[in-house]
Description:
Cofactor: Mg(2+)
Function: Catalyzes the insertion of molybdate into adenylated molybdopterin with the concomitant release of AMP.
Shape: elongated
Bound molecules: adenosine monophosphate, magnesium ion
CATH superfamily of the largest domain: MoaB/Mog-like domain
Strand content: 25-35%
Catalytic activity: adenylyl-molybdopterin + molybdate = Mo-molybdopterin + AMP + H(+)
Radius of gyration: 31 Å
Family: Belongs to the MoeA family.
CATH class of the largest domain: Alpha Beta
Distance between the termini: 57 Å
Structural class: alpha/beta
Number of strands: 28
CATH topology of the largest domain: Molybdenum Cofactor Biosythetic Enzyme, Chain A
Largest sheet: 7 strands, mixed
Protein name: Molybdopterin molybdenumtransferase
Number of helices: 6
Number of domains: 4
Amino acid sequence: MADVLPAGPALPARVVRSLDEHAAAVLALGRPLPAVTVPSAQARGRALAADVRSTLDLPPWDSSAMDGYAVRSAELHVGGALEVADDVAAGDTRDVRLPTGAVARVMTGAPVPDGADAVLPVELTDGGTRRVHVQGVVAPGAHVRRRGEDVRAGDVVLHAGDVLGAGAVGLLAATGHAHVAVHARPRVAVLSTGSELVPPGQPLAHGQIHESNGPQLAAAAEAAGADVVAVRVVRDDVPAVRAALAALVGEADLVVTTGGVSVGAYDVVRDALLADGAGELVHVRMQPGKPQAVGALADGTPVLALPGNPVSSFVSFEVFVRPLLRRLLGARHVHRRRLTADLAADLRSTAGRRRLLRARLDWGSGRPVAVLVGGPGSHLLGALAGADALVDVPEDVAHLAAGDPVTVIDLREHDA
Ligand code: AMP
Ligand code: MG
């Protein structure tokens, strides 16, 4: 038996790092991509390449906050009546001047005529259209949205590095920006390795499994703002892996591989990446996700090689790949939000290894409680979809009790 197994090259030396050390080393591989101009309406999820200033005051003119009557507040008396001199709807572009002793009917969002200092809501009148009877009074300034009270022309309304959410897209439109300068989206290629892998939809022979890391990582990369340009599978064969990597030259800003970075006889990514001495095999003091490798394509494009176990690749993406993608995207904040949660149940860990445990946050009591899901095995995919957080157990902690506060990485998507 022994002589049918490939002898394999001697294992290359491993660098041993903490999670934070490796995350910092990976983050240092990238800089924000060059700026491109895109239509503002399509800029959601992109990071601004420069500050954005408003081209105008918001509101651009004094506008009515209510349906009612533009008035001179000093002319109002309960029980009095005033002539309705004009009718101003939203979209009325005339320059209206309010005569003394009269009012103008105005609708919400209509310009307030010159001379008026307040809007009397229709509810405080009889609603008259020629003469209006006054049933209440308002103070100067009531229900008028003043020109520029929201935003002044020239104000910086969004900052370089902001990732644009729906509110920002609305603000760009309101401040007159049809186009906006953002960083290019990182192009990501995913390469799954493993001779056992079969695409979903095809029947499995004994010994085969469906390829799930590729779709999982592609989805995660897209959610992080990347443009996934390739999702490919390659068998456990060093020349095939090298050819698959070579085919990606010029196609991507980042290549992510899964599988084949451990100490097995068929750990082909390890051998393909390290063959020319350029890559680095890393043993990260964490679980899951211990074996990692970093290399580069011939054109210098970084290659991050993640372990193949689906949970390991999921967690590795979160802590190593996603921050780098966010940096390439130009985001100011590259890390996920962290929260403090109460642990739902006791847990045992292994001192000397940082643990990142899948969890669901239960908000029933008003403050988050972290309920572990899925068990400790790195192959346990069943509950992965139910995890919206990773409990972060420090390297030096071996035991935590129910109710203990823990730091969790919040996996829910946020704008910003
Ligand atoms: P490896 O890191 O290549 O030793 O793979 C570790 C485990 O993850 C093995 O059980 C593989 O079958 C499994 N695995 C590797 N790649 C994938 C993938 N793309 N999809 C699903 N499971 C995988
Ligand atoms: Mg494998």
